[in-house]
Amino acid sequence: MPSATPELISPRSPRVSAARRLARRNFRGKERLFLAEGPQAVREAAGHRDTLVELFATVEAAERYADIVGEARAAGARTHLADEQVIADISTTVTPQGLVGICRFLDTPFAQILAARPKLVAVLANVRDPGNAGTVLRCADAAGAEAVVLTDASVDLYNPKAVRASVGSLFHLPVAVGVPVEEAVAGLKGTGVRVLAADGAGTDDLDDELDKGTMGGPTAWVFGNEAWGLPEETRALADAVVRVPIHGKAESLNLATAAAVCLYASARAQRASGGCRSVTES
Predict the structure, then answer these.
(1) What's the chain's average pLDDT?
(2) In the list 92, 199, 226, 256, which could disulfide-bond 135, CB 3.0-4.6 Å?
């Protein structure tokens, strides 16, 4: 894309107004579209089939990230050069990076996730903070999980802060949304998945579970609300309630850190001898 005068210079442009409204959950749900901001998210969206619909870029960003703009165009996205103020108006970040994409929703039906018989799943029950939700999604992706499930009481997956916190992982693995926690647990158990509730007051210790060799099979971890954890009725649904041991003086771990510890513990056990994944499986 050659250097040129931006074609979109007014925040009142109909295209800009429509993009800006995607910062609101009700409009996202109506249009089934969401914002992906910055080069990493836009690159991932462009590489995900039929996802990136439209791209807004400043002249400077279009030159700096010419490869990403080229990928967006090759993916069929409409591309627009926009004034910096227009990008700032669309963006939800304090310091925009000059690229904002509009993407189609990506969520996967829960039945489709079950049909794939996943070996490692993260279930977010009542998780309300979008930054935490996105970070857990990123942890699940890094640990090799095959799916993430957000219950009907959890934050919107497409909240801009959640999308940013996932750092592109939103585009890497199936995510089901709006699933009642009872349905999520029952469905996973029905496919032979052991369901573990992560809770600081759990009766079972993660280290003990690893030592006993009980972590090598297909597993789903249920993670609760940042402030009050999992309610008793949700803990009662699980096969076990597991705590991450605190060996030092810290009072507790935050949600994303605990999720990373639990998911990696399962990933390691599953890849060990006797686990449900071979040591060479990616």
Answers:
(1) 92
(2) 256
